Amino acid sequence: MTHLVYIGNKLTNTGKTATTIDTLGCGLEQSGYKVTYASSYTNIVLRLIDMLWTVFKHRTTVDYVLIDTYSTLNFYYAYAVSAICRLLKLKYIPILHGGNLPERLKTSPKLSAAIFNNAYVNVSPSHYVKSSFERSGYTNIIVIPNSITIASYPFTPRRVAPIKMLWVRSFSKLYHPKLAVDVLHLLEKKGYKASLCMVGPDNDGSLEETKAYANTLGVSVTFTGKLSKPEWILLSEAYTVFINTTNFDNTPVSVIEAMALGLPIVSTNVGGMPFLIDHSTDGLLVPPNSPEAFVDAILKYKKDDTFCKAVIKNARTKAESFDWTTVKPLWKAALK
């Protein structure tokens, strides 16, 4: 049995949103791999120590070390873990999640080269990150998309009448949650009846800031906090459009999930989003930091029901290509 050590922030028990270490790890276990995880410590120093110790502890039995790699603090975790893998001559595979990783290649070129040039292979969830890495001279990169279990997402095509917006993400400045509030405020100023529900845990204090901002603008927003996957899928039945307001992104699973559910998507045109969404075919892309552009896109769905139905149908078809049954063979090939 192939033994994998999976390194990442496994923090769902502390109120954080499930990430790839939870979903991919589960899929790999169900596919017959033995998976050892690190780490679930909330303290960042203890988490790093646990990650390094777990790799060292299993050095004689592990076949591959998978490393969730982001562009902020986790980047240094990835560097440290990759360093011990190189020292112990272990095969390691960075999984390139961070939408701002292309910028990290420029700001930390030596650390980036140490991590990525020495990897067994680098796995990118999107062609966006792959192309960015290739422009920086990296060649050992393959694309394996983030996956979902399509059967978990009942397809219900929506009409944007009334305008009921759903936002699902961790509250972080990177994801610009205040923009969602601006969109609601502008819709109301234009005389449209609209509502907004924002789902997700706080990551950096942005949740309270967004609540205060909504109060300042005098708009009513529903904040649910963290919900389980089944809970927010059930909640989504009451909403008619999904908005993604981020300033940096790769291939967010929440957007793929919304496409699977039949929610028309409006997203900022940043990072990997144009690689995920074909504008006007399976979603609408708008400039970042522009509530006016979001409102125009939402109204396009509302006023053109035929267009909205076509986009929703195409989005569901694309979401089906992210099903684990399609993605699993790509991982099996990488881990052969």
Order of H and E elements = EHEHEHEHHEHEEHEHEHEHEHEHHH
Principal-axis shape: globular
Number of helices: 14
Distance between the termini: 11 Å
Low-confidence stretches: none
State mean pLDDT (0 to 100 scale): 95
Sheet having the most strands: 6 strands, parallel
Structural class: alpha/beta
Q: What labels would you give this structure?
A:
six-stranded parallel sheet; 16% strand; 14 helices; alpha/beta; 336 residues; four-stranded parallel sheet
Please characterize this protein's 3D structure.
The protein contains 14 helices and twelve strands. The radius of gyration is 20 Å and the shape is globular. Helix 10 links the parallel strand 10 (241-244) and strand 11. Helices cover 45% and strands 16% of the residues. A six-stranded parallel β-sheet has the order 9-8-7-10-11-12, sandwiched between helices. The protein has a four-stranded parallel β-sheet with strand order 2-1-3-4, with helices on both faces. It has a two-stranded parallel ribbon with strand order 5-6. With 336 residues, the protein is an alpha/beta fold. Helix 2 runs parallel beside helix 3, helix 4 (101-107) packs across helix 5 (109-117) and helix 7 packs parallel to helix 8 (206-217). The model has no long low-confidence stretch (mean pLDDT 95). It has helices at residues 20-30, 44-57, 73-88, 101-107, 109-117, 127-135, 177-189, 206-217, 229-236, 253-261, 273-276, 291-303, 305-320, 324-334, and strands at 3-7, 34-38, 64-69, 92-96, 122-124, 141-143, 163-168, 194-199, 222-225, 241-244, 265-268, 284-286.
